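Dock glutamine; give full complex structure.
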Amino acid sequence: MKKLIFERGMRLILSILLCVIFISGNLSAQNSQLTKENIEAAVNEAYNKYKDVKEGANADYIKELANVDPNIFGIALVTTDGQVYTMGDIESMVSIQSVSKVFTMAKVIEELGYEAVEDKIGVDATGEVFNSITAVERMRGKEINPLVNPGAIASTSLINGSDSAAKWASILQVHSDFAGRNLSLNMPVYISEAGDNLRNQAIAHLLLAYGRMYFDPVQATDIYTKQCAINVNAKDAGIMAATLANGGVNPITNKVVVSPETVMYTLPVMSTAGLYDDSGIWLYHTGVPAKSGVGGCLIAVVPGKFGIAVISPPLDKAGNSVKGQLAIEYIIDQLNVDPYLIQPSK
Ligand code: GLN
């Protein structure tokens, strides 16, 4: 009898022990991906693997962008606990372009609430190119999206501030807070685009006609053009992405830039519309919210873990940085951080 109880006891202890070993093995398999060594290796490999890629071309519909050095290639990965991993050119500054749409959208949510963005702009993806006029016309100004031009100009028009200067100061400040340092304007890019932005002006006026523009359309387009010309390097953009990954707190300065709820409503729009009409393909490959700009900047957010940015000006047909997509996709794959990669519980 005693022997039987002893044997059963031993068997129970053995199975508990096996369970513990199995669970901790599984956990460490998941966590081991984000060690310093693994991150460094992934970032370095991505850089070396793609540094000689020659595909794509600088945007040239904004004349000054055609003059940017196409060989700029920098990667910055910033973890939510403030570690910075970089590779390549992280000094060269490029205009942030459409990546700015994320931060202005977040500021509008912060000031007016997530319902305002949904009701006054719309959050569904248009599925069309970023400067589509037909998308506005088709929806009669409804369901435009803050991460493509029409919705972004509408977002700019919604920013608190009694005049154009106050709105611009607020937008520049929030970008600086996300980056953790004072950012400034790329004057040649701003002048170049401001002299040539009739299409965006047309979009703003069409929105006004549909009652979906909330400030003077000429001035709103001008502020929008300025926000697109804010200068960033890869490290700035990496920290901006990491601030989103960290629920709105800048992991370097520890400043609360926006609330976790604001981030919660910003990231899904990045997932569905961050890479314009190629957003679905991007999400299929990486599973993470991202945003690109025609200056060659691409940011991606791995919620709770890290933000990453690449600057490389040559773009594909959809307007997304070729090397940016390759490098970030590679790093996310190497680190096994696609949020849809689920380790079964048994
Ligand atoms: N300033 C650019 C424009 O309005 C931004 C476009 C982009 O980066 N996709 O055309």
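Observed: The domain at 36-335 is CATH 3.40.710.10 (Beta-lactamase).
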